[in-house]
Automatic annotation (TrEMBL):
Start and end residues of each PB1-like domain: 1-98
The protein's name: PB1-like domain-containing protein
Organism: Arachis hypogaea (Peanut)
Entry-linked InterPro entries: PB1-like_dom_pln
Length: 99
């Protein structure tokens, strides 16, 4: 069986400093794109899913290194090479990645 992963899309608005001084994403609407074959995943695949959520134009996409904080764990998802790196890390997070 091919490797699969779940992508948890966090979408809504902005990164903001919370009352605790830590970076948060607000509002944090979530959508799961489940059981994706990693061999079929590319940047265009992700863009099409954003369109299904009503986002015709997405300026930037970021992913969170598992176990990292928003302050230091965010990585810019702007190429297939970065997507491959993201898929490598997903094994350390029960096949779930936050985008």
């Amino acid at each position: 069986m091919d490797a699969v992963l779940d992508i948890m899309f966090h979408h809504g608005r902005n990164f903001e400093k919370g009352e605790n001084g830590r970076l948060d994403y607000y509002p944090d609407s979530k959508h799961c794109l489940c059981e994706i074959d990693v061999d079929k995943l590319d940047v265009f695949y992700l863009r099409n899913d954003f369109k299904k959520l009503g986002y015709d134009k997405v300026n930037e996409v970021w992913w969170l290194v598992p176990g990292g904080s928003l302050e230091v764990g965010l990585r810019h998802l702007n190429s297939d090479d970065e997507l491959k790196e993201m898929c490598f890390f997903v094994e350390k997070n029960d096949s779930i990645i936050d985008v």
